[in-house]
Design brief:
mainly beta; 5-stranded antiparallel β-sheet; single chain; 18 strands; 1 helix; about 0% helix
């Protein structure tokens, strides 16, 4: 039997327990700045980045598509900091998240969301998610916490699925 995950459209209600959707339509307020030549779409996403002497940083991830059917066989979380993904190209992309149970991903609660290419997301700290999933080669601005010479296991926990736990995305 193949364990399948249906792909859903993301919205504020179905994603709020996992993080924030980054899009100007979700700004808490819109402020005219720069002599009224610019609209600031204010406070779209909360970030938690400077925990345990880390610093806030911007990086670029360059994602490559996986083979289809896409197998979901690993989940990860960042226990002390949030992580934001903002697509550079306007290409739809996917995320997989789950709730936590006994300090591991609750595989019965896994959800996959299709995200439009002009929309970013922030994972709240300690949220289980699959590594980057793209349908075409795609770059992302990443806003997260880094700390030079820190053991990666401090802010990265991974769960590798047993063979009978592997899921497949349904297109």
């Amino acid at each position: 039997m193949i364990n399948k995950i249906e792909i859903e459209s993301i919205n504020l209600d179905n994603f709020s327990e996992f993080g924030h959707i980054i899009h100007k339509d979700f700004a808490s307020e819109k402020i005219s700045i720069n002599q009224s030549t610019t609209i600031r779409h204010h406070n779209i996403s909360d970030l938690a980045l400077n925990n345990e002497d880390g610093i806030s940083a911007i990086s670029i991830f360059s994602g490559s598509p996986r083979n289809i059917p896409i197998e979901i066989k690993i989940m990860e979380k960042h226990p002390i900091a949030s992580q934001s993904f903002l697509p550079v190209q306007n290409i739809d992309w996917l995320i997989v998240v789950s709730k936590e149970k006994n300090d591991m991903p609750d595989l019965d609660t896994m959800r996959c969301f299709r995200i439009q290419g002009d929309v970013g997301i922030t994972y709240k700290k300690n949220v289980w998610h699959h590594p980057l999933l793209v349908r075409k080669n795609q770059d992302f601005w990443i806003v997260d916490r880094i700390k030079k010479d820190e053991n990666p296991s401090i802010n990265l926990k991974e769960y590798h699925f047993k063979e009978n736990e592997i899921r497949h995305l349904v297109f």
